[in-house]
Each structure stands twice: as C-alpha cells, then as structure tokens.
Amino acid sequence: MTDPFIQFCRASLSEEEASVVEKVIESGWLTTGPNVAGFESEFKEYIGCEHAIALNSCTGGLHCSLSALDIGEGDEVITTPLTFVATGHVIVWTGAKPVLVDIDPNTFNIDPQKIESAITPRTKAIMPVHFAGLPCDMDRILDIAKRHNLAVIEDAAHAVGSEYKNKRVGTFGDSTVFSFYPTKNMTTGEGGMVTTNNAKLAERIRKFAFFGINKEVWERYGKKQSWQYDIILPGYKYNMSDVLAAIGRVQLKRLDAFNARRSEIAEEFKSRLKGLEEHISFPPERADCKHNWHLFPILLDKTSKTRESLIEFLGERQIGSSVHFIPLHLFSYYQDAWGWKPGDFPEVEKVFKNIVSLPIYPGLSSADVDRIIDTLFRFFETTSRD
Ligand SMILES: *Cc1c(COP(=O)(O)O)cnc(C)c1O
Fold this sequence. Notes:
Blueprint: H1 15-27, H2 34-47, E1 51-55, H3 58-68, E2 76-79, H4 85-94, E3 97-100, H5 112-115, E4 123-127, H6 138-148, E5 151-155, E6 163-164, E7 167-168, E8 175-179, E9 192-196, H7 199-209, H8 217-221, H9 242-272, E10 289-290, E11 296-299, H10 307-316, H11 332-338, H12 346-354, E12 355-358, H13 366-381
Parallel strand pairs: 2-3, 2-4, 4-5, 5-8
Antiparallel strand pairs: 1-9, 6-7, 6-10, 8-9, 11-12
Helix pairs in contact: 1-9, 2-9, 3-4, 3-7
The structure holds pyridoxal-5'-phosphate (PLP).
C-alpha cells in the first residue's frame, strides 16, 4: 500500500469561495467593480494603511510601482538575488538596471550592511523581499533610503500578515506589493495588492495599472453611461477581476486562521525535528518580527547528504518539496544581459546549495506532519544513500 501524496502546497478553498463566485456570475459584473472596491477597502483596514490597489498579480504591482515612481532608463534599482524572477524582471522591463546585494545568512533577506556600497548616483530605489514571510530589517533599510533619497518598494509576495516591530508589513516602504498566487498564504487564483500611505503615488499606480485612463472602468460602463475618458499616460493592463476579488474577500477573512495553522505546523517542525539539529538548520526568525510561515526552508548545512538526495527521498515516499529560489544571478538571461556569474554572491550561493522547503499550509493534517517528520528522521538515519 502506498501512502497518499502530500503535495508541496495546496490552497485552502471552501464552499464559501465557491458560493461568492456564483453570486458574482449571477450579478453579471465580472471585471473590476464593487467586489474589487470592497476587497481594497477590507485589505487596507487589515494592513492598517491608507491606500490599497488590487491588481491581477504581484508582478504587475511591482511594475506599476516602479513606473509610478518614474524609474526607468539610466536608473538603478537594488534588490536581493534570493527571490522569484518577477522581482528582477520588473526592473528590467522599466529600462532600469537591476543591482544585486547579497543576503544576510542570519535572515536570508537582503543584507542592509551591504546596501550602501552598492548605491551609485543612479540608484533610485531599493526593492527588499521578505523571504519566506520573515520581514526584512525595515528600520535599517528605511534609514539608508532616507539618507540617500531612495524609494523603497517592498516585494511582500510572501509576507501577508507578517509583522515587523508589531506593525503589519504593508505600512513601511513607499509601496508594498502582495501576491495572491495559489501557493501564497491567501489566494485569488491569480492576483496582487499594492499598499501605500502616499495618496499621489496610489493614484499614479492606479493609472499605470489600467491604460492611464482617468476614470474607473465601472464608472464608465456603470450607471453613468459615459463614454468619455482621457488617457494621461501609457499604462498597462493589470486590473483585478471582480470574480477574483470576491474570492479574495473570503480568503482575507480566513487569513489569520490560515497563518495561525501555519505557525502551529512550524512550531511542531521545530520542536519535533530538534533531534536532527546536528544535520540541519531551521529557518531564520527574528525576535522583533511575527513570521507568517509562508515557507519552512531547512538547510542541509551540517551533513554530507545533499539537498537533491533529500528531495528524491521525500518524493519516493510521496512527499512534495521545493527549492526557493534559484538565485537571480545563476540564470542564463541575467548572466548574459547583466554580466553576473557564479561566485558573485557567495552567501546566497551557500544557502541555495543546501536549502529545501518542506510542505507547510493550513490543509496539512497532523498525520501528514507526522509522516514528514518521520521521513526526515529516516533520511538522516539512512547511511547508504550518498
Ligand atoms: C510569487 C512571487 C512573486 C510574484 O507574484 P505574482 O502574484 O505571481 O505576480 C513575486 N515575488 C516573489 C518573491 C514571489 O514569491
């Protein structure tokens, strides 16, 4: 008898998400409309910020943030190599140059100590990524940004519900961008949200997200029946659909419970895997932060066993796992276009070599958690494999 497969991740969707989608379909209004407006207002209340703009991806939100800040040709933007390619690509799309700063091995986030030496007269912004859901050291990053007159755009794709010094991520930088991709802590299928406390920037991000049109789409086709509009800049097409916003409103209500369950699983992993501490390291935490446990990456940094052999061992026993992330500077495109090469960012390479993300999501049962833990013990007890 084979064990059922434990997926690496799975979104938690209930009858309620299904029923609100049905209602949106019955209403006949599928694109950006009342559900997007409701989702934005509930999200900004949850975060504790002034403005929230719902989009069809986090990538789009990062792109619009850069454009709204007039970042482009001739400019440089600093980010981390330990991220999804979206963070690097959006910089390239604007015509600006991506500049990488290595991670701090104690947090896996961009090392604030190394940021200043990467700043040039062309630097316009810092894009920190809250890796795995652990917030970056925002006080230090904001201080550097202030002294050098740089914008801060946070890639918070992992960090919905995380807190830095008792404040939710989403209130620190000029703009913060969340992802609702199905693997993230809450989902809309595809989607994202930008938060900011700057009214002018919020307005400009909205324009960039929808063709530069000076009216909301539902004002145009809604009750007012007005066909007139102006185009004030060459904006993109990143607006969120009302179908997805309706799902997001339900997911947002469930988010704290989702994150509480993730945290419970993380605590179990930490306490019950203690016996493996001679082989592995646990993911970093900070005493001044609340982690939302988007990921639970372990490091195989004290063993001769490889990360590849662990992934294979887990897979053979019907357990999914993953690697976050292949550092940006190891991809062909980034090496060819920006001249980066292996060895350029040694801290992230050391982490990358040994890192494996274990399954962690609200739908994981206690029996699943038991099986993951037992299998890890069996892996390290096996001496014959490598
Ligand atoms: C998922 C992810 C993104 C992209 O989010 P989308 O909503 O899919 O555009 C960006 N950055 C990081 C770090 C991510 O993990």
